[in-house]
Each structure stands twice: as structure tokens, then as C-alpha cells.
Design a protein that fits this description.
- The chain has helices spanning 52-63, 82-92, 95-108, 124-134, 154-157, 177-188, 216-234; strands spanning 11-20, 23-32, 38-44, 67-71, 113-122, 141-145, 164-169, 194-199.
- With 245 residues, it is an alpha/beta fold.
- It has a single domain, classed as Rossmann fold (3-Layer(aba) Sandwich), CATH 3.40.50.1820.
- An 8-stranded mixed β-sheet has the order 1-2-4-3-5-6-7-8, with helices on both faces.
- Strand 6, helix 5 (154-157) and strand 7 form a beta-alpha-beta unit.
- The chain is globular, with a radius of gyration of 17 Å.
Length: 245
């Protein structure tokens, strides 16, 4: 995806296998062809699964100088209805957290990763990102799209010491204003760098251009914020003119 405002790297991308709890977990992998070391980014898909939209986002961040791994938490299955999505979430259960851990380990042990690791997730994936970050000290930043900490207690949330960017749509019925405000208050009680952004009149899945609720202006602003957030906290290499284009 060409973006004239940013210098971009040529990429290598495709499917790989990650070992998780003795099983081989499929994942999508995207990273610059040359250079480094680069920061790592674990990308966690929403309840629809590892769709083409998520793969596009993996390539998009990789073009900006990130080693990106997007584990396929549903093992090559995607959903086309909320009912199918919930069935896939129920099937993976708590094993999903082990899959996230395996993806982080794959980056931390890679010789072209600078050991600065961020996690980004949408919906279901955002909740997993937050659950993971609460009990880890080796993450450098977390970005959540339309994800509330339903599975994380206030006490656990106060354990977070990683910077957090949380992005919501005002018209998302799954993330009501009072719960977003509660999250804001909890994060305000910590010393960590955090930001909560709510886009007026925007619904869920506003970032996904394959969905009817896609909002181009909000999606572009959210992309800019997320990229700036990770650039700031994950020590991305300078994008110089001699980098591969």
C-alpha cells in the first residue's frame, strides 16, 4: 500500500508456522527485505479472523520498518456472521493467550528484531492484547481498537506499565460511553503514557474498509496515531532516503 508521506521498505511476506503448546500455529509474517534490526509487532485479529484486511495492515506496518507477525488464532478459519465469530472465539478459548505468547517469543528470538515489541489488536484481538500486557514486562506499547478490558479487573489494569493507545467509535454499541470513561479513569490513575481517542458518530469496524461501517477519515487518523505511537515507543530505525523503496 503506497503512502507518499512515508518512505517505505520493500517487503517479504507470507504464511509461516509458529510453535504454540506443542502445536504448529499458522501465522502471517511481513517484514522489510533488508536492513534492521527492526522493532517487532504482534498483530491480533478481531472476531472475523485473519482476513485480507488484517494481512494488509501487517504489510502496511512492515513497510514502515516493523517485523510483524499476525497469528491465525482461528487456525485458517474466518467468520462471515457474528454467530460464526462467537463460535470460533469459544473454540479457541484461553488457548488464544498461549498463541499470543508464542508470537511474541518468535519476535523476541529473531536476530533482526531489536527486542522492542508492541501489540496491536482489534475487538477480540484487542482484549487479548490487554490481557497479555498486564502480566508481561517485555512489551513496549499496546494499541487497542474498539476493545474494552472486560476480561481484566481494575486491579489487574493498574499493573500495566506499558504505554497504551485505545481507539473507539462513538456509535459502537459494544463500547458504550460510560465504559470508555471508566477505562479513561483507570488509566488516568497510572503513571504510564496513555491516550484514549473516540471518533464522533463512528461505529464499530470503522478501520476495516471491507465493512459497511468503514469511515475513511477516522481510519486515516487512527492509522496516523497508531504509527506515531509505535514509532515513539518501539525505536523504529530512521526512514532515510537510502532505505529500499
Amino acid at each position: 500500500m503506497f503512502e507518499a508521506r512515508h518512505l517505505q521498505y520493500n517487503l517479504i511476506s507470507g504464511y509461516i508456522q509458529v510453535v504454540s503448546d506443542g502445536h504448529h500455529l499458522p501465522a502471517f509474517w511481513a517484514h522489510p527485505e533488508l536492513g534492521g534490526p527492526f522493532p517487532g509487532l504482534v498483530m491480533l485479529h478481531d472476531h472475523w479472523g485473519l482476513t485480507s484486511h488484517i494481512r494488509t495492515q501487517a504489510r502496511r506496518f512492515a513497510e514502515q520498518g516493523y517485523y510483524v507477525i499476525a497469528p491465525d488464532l482461528f487456525n485458517r478459519q474466518t467468520a462471515t456472521s457474528p454467530e460464526q465469530a462467537q463460535a470460533l472465539i469459544d473454540r479457541v478459548g484461553e488457548v488464544a493467550l498461549s498463541h499470543v505468547k508464542a508470537a511474541i517469543s518468535a519476535l523476541l528470538t529473531h536476530h533482526r528484531c531489536n527486542t522492542k515489541i508492541g501489540v496491536i489488536g482489534w475487538g477480540f484481538g484487542g482484549k487479548l492484547a490487554l490481557q497479555t500486557a498486564v502480566y508481561r514486562e517485555d512489551l513496549s506499547g499496546v494499541v487497542l481498537f474498539y476493545s474494552l478490558p472486560n476480561e481484566v479487573t481494575p486491579a489487574e489494569l493498574r499493573l500495566l506499565d506499558e504505554p497504551v493507545l485505545a481507539v473507539f467509535g462513538e456509535a459502537d454499541s459494544g463500547c458504550p460511553a460510560e465504559k470508555i470513561e471508566r477505562l479513561r479513569q483507570l488509566l488516568a490513575g497510572s503513571d504510564m503514557d496513555h491516550e484514549i481517542v473516540v471518533y464522533p458518530g463512528v461505529g464499530r469496524d470503522f478501520f476495516d474498509d471491507s465493512r459497511g461501517t468503514f469511515n475513511a477519515d477516522a481510519a486515516e487518523d487512527a492509522w496516523t496515531r497508531a504509527l506515531a505511537f509505535f514509532d515513539r515507543h518501539l525505536e523504529v530505525p530512521p526512514r532515510r532516503s537510502e532505505n529500499p523503496m
